[in-house]
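Hey, resending since the last one bounced:
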Amino acid sequence: MFLDLYKQDVALRTYDGYIIRFRLHIIPYIGKKKLNEVTHIDVQNVLNKMRGKSSNSIRKVYNDLSQLFEKAVVARFITSSPVIGVVVPKGYSNKRRAITNHERELIELCCQWHPYGAWIYSMLLCGCRPHETALLQYKDVVENTLHIRGTKSKAADRIVPLPDKLKSKLNLSSGLEEYLFHTESGLVPKYEHNRADMWSRFKKDAGLDTDVTMYCLRHTYCTDLQTAGVPINVAKDFMGHSSITLTANIYTHTSDKSWLDASDKYNAFLATFLPH
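The structure tokens again:
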């Protein structure tokens, strides 16, 4: 009732997020109770079960519970919210950063044989957001370009170069309506938990640290564009950013190579002022 009444106008992706969080983190623990039977301790237990998850995931479930019971109070199903006063576990920081050279070596080696190698490359070499990977179809591959069907904003729908590394791993003889990527059970990774399972499997097989996230791959794509000398206005289009400011925030994370290149160029410039 809560979702039907208050969340019908949100984006489909956002609504799917509510459904997934309720099914995974809320319903298994309090789903069989009536609203007026849910206690403060019950809610605290729901959040405590999420220890070890990212702080962002924990905060979303906390917000879901808060909204749910606040509306139940307004509707007079209950007199007070059991969420008031709960302690929210910290969780780990889901910091977005570029991968290190060592992490890249591990990823490149694993991509050569792993069933999810092409999927990983779509984020690392084309800058796909994780949810965008589920929308990619074979018809989106046109010669050496890839049409990324972005849904986050108007700018997110974009055409990017398709590197040979990724193109060679795709079975381009498949039907044009076929999706590029599937889970090992054959499902299109439409839902967040499917992609999380795929990433968890790849990360374990590659031997990556826990703080490496899927978004680190997209972040690396942006820093790679900078290192390669791609102008920031072009990088903005490749990233599908709605504002060049978003791109600039990543471009300021200067790579070691670009720092050294800049140093060499500056020294060469200063040398032109030396007396002959």
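Residues 2-74 form one domain.

Sorry for the duplicate.
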